[in-house]
Design brief:
Aminopeptidase; 6 helices; alpha/beta; 4-stranded antiparallel sheet
Length: 306
């Protein structure tokens, strides 16, 4: 089978880990794609040991359509491990899952795409294997984004669920969204280099820690962004909070109005915590996520830093 997506592998002459860095699982998430492109150019001949496979655009069809979803209407991040014979997204999921199973670690980079803006974070599943979990925690710390977030391992269909099943340490990142922010590319490039440094494959570029919050939440379904604060009905959503804002319980997140601007439904916070996700567009269908809060009340570990 011809490659369904571009694959670049950089090898060292010395034995070591086989790393995998991917972007473009969703076609409307641009900064990670350009970060991987930059890594390809900067890391050639500079990997100290092992090998590194980079996939700048996993979901080419979705990228060319400027869409989160593939040309068959499927979300690649809900389709893994996919099918060898199936629709285009199922085939892509099958091929990227094969790469994940061969890797010794995975970094999967995302943004909020067209619909959401998300505070920069490194996330991982709360893996039942303590050795894998500790490695994931260290990878997230090394990536050096402001938020570190561990969530339930029960979500399926994702690249990280494939890695989970194979005991491959894996993290994902989220970085803004709701537009294109090229200033963030450097943070993603440096983060990947720092993870490579953790595995002894590249010199560290970390510098001072940027981490301001560490949180782990092992409740079932935690980490499913698209289910947070679902819209009670369709309408125009006007957000009244800002990314990174600390809120108390029962504060107003925003309100929904009808298309004439006459009807108003206030959406209130259900817990105190930090706003880390907001809807970046006013369009909201019933059930669409409107916002997300990281809260000590939902977590088994919660630490503010600085």
């Amino acid at each position: 089978m011809a490659n369904l997506f571009p694959i670049i592998t950089i090898k060292s002459s010395k034995p070591g880990p086989e790393g995998l860095i991917i972007a473009g699982v969703h076609g409307d998430e641009y900064e990670p794609i350009l970060a991987v492109r930059q890594l390809i150019n900067e890391l050639k001949g500079k990997i100290g040991k092992g090998s590194l496979t980079l996939v700048p655009v996993v979901n080419k069809g979705a990228f060319l359509a400027g869409s989160r979803l593939g040309l068959d209407g499927l979300d690649l991040a809900r389709t893994c491990p996919g099918k060898k014979v199936g629709s285009i997204t199922e085939q892509v999921a099958h091929e990227i899952s094969k790469l994940i199973r061969k890797a010794d670690f995975l970094i999967d980079m995302h943004t909020g795409g067209n619909l959401f803006e998300i505070s920069p974070l490194s996330g991982y599943m709360m893996h039942p294997n303590s050795e894998v979990l500790d490695t994931q925690r260290a990878m997230a710390e090394a990536f050096n984004l402001p938020i570190i977030w561990g969530t339930s391992p029960d979500l399926e269909g994702r690249t990280l669920s494939v890695a989970r099943d194979e005991n491959v340490p894996a993290i994902y990142t989220e970085y803004r969204g709701g537009g294109y922010y090229p200033d963030g590319i450097g943070d993603l490039v440096d983060g990947c280099k720092n993870v490579l440094a953790y595995f002894g494959m590249f010199p560290s570029v970390k510098g001072d820690s940027k981490v301001t919050l560490k949180i782990e939440d092992n409740q079932p379904g935690s980490g499913h962004l698209q289910e947070m604060y679902p819209a009670p009905e369709e309408g125009v959503f006007v957000v009244t909070v800002e990314l990174g804002q600390e809120v108390r319980q029962n504060e107003v997140l925003g309100y929904l109005c009808d298309f004439y601007g006459e009807k108003k439904i206030e959406v209130h916070t259900l817990q105190a915590g930090r706003i880390f996700l907001i809807r970046a567009v006013p369009m909201a269908k019933k059930g669409d996520a409107l916002a997300g809060i990281l809260s000590a009340g939902n977590s088994n570990y919660y630490e503010k830093i600085g």
